């Protein structure tokens, strides 16, 4: 009975543990979603969105232990997010991109979370891993923005977010035939 009481008090003190995180796998997952959203946007001229990278976010203590650490994040637990945006996007282009992205997320079984009242956009959650995708367009600036997010997880020992090569992201170029340079003209007149 005493052991059960001690275990219950320890659980109340610490709360439920965070799952282990594999930052590289999470980064790959978020970058895949960012790339798919970029491709679905079909932005004319494929504008640059960089520099973009997977950033880590603060996660807090759970359980009663959190009362002793109010507004103090844990160093061993982080969330992950990747944001990109392009300004000057026309409304028809933005709405078409948002429609394509939403249709794909629904086909893949993502759960609709919310839509924005004041601007076109939405948020979806992946039921398999709780990742979030949020996309919207702002009329005033023509900003088309996409955020991908993974929830808090316990980092592996030695993880250094500042020396993390997997964090970098840029949209992949459009696949297509190789570009052939024009033929050189002869310098002598005919």
Q: Can you describe this structure?
A:
The chain is of the alpha+beta class and 190 residues long. The protein has three helices and eight strands. The chain has helices at residues 2-14, 23-41, 91-107; strands at 52-53, 55-60, 73-86, 111-115, 121-125, 132-138, 143-154, 168-169. Strands 2-3-7-6-5-4 form a six-stranded antiparallel β-sheet, with helices on one face. The chain has a two-stranded antiparallel sheet with strand order 1-8. α2 (23-41) crosses α3 (91-107). The chain is globular. It starts with a helix and ends in a 21-residue tail after the last strand. Residues 6-11 and 176-187 have low confidence and may be disordered.
Tell me briefly what this model is.
26% of the residues lie in helices and 28% in strands. It is α+β, with helices and mostly antiparallel strands and 190 residues long.
């Amino acid at each position: 009975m005493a052991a059960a009481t001690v275990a219950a008090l320890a659980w109340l003190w610490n709360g439920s543990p965070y799952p282990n995180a594999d930052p590289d796998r999470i980064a790959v997952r978020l970058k895949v979603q960012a790339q798919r959203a970029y491709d679905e946007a079909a932005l004319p001229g494929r504008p640059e969105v960089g520099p973009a990278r997977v950033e880590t976010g603060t996660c807090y203590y759970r359980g009663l232990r959190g009362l002793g650490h109010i507004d103090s994040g844990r160093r061993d637990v982080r969330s992950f997010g990747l944001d990109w945006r392009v300004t000057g996007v026309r409304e028809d282009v933005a709405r078409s991109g948002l429609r394509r992205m939403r249709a794909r997320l629904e086909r893949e079984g993502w759960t609709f979370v919310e839509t924005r009242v004041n601007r076109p956009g939405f948020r979806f959650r992946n039921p398999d891993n709780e990742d979030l995708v949020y996309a919207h367009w702002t009329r005033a600036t023509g900003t088309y923005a996409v955020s991908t997010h993974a929830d808090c997880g316990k980092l592996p020992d030695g993880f250094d977010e500042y020396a993390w090569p997997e964090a970098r992201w840029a949209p992949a170029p459009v696949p297509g035939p190789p570009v052939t340079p024009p033929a050189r003209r002869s310098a002598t007149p005919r």
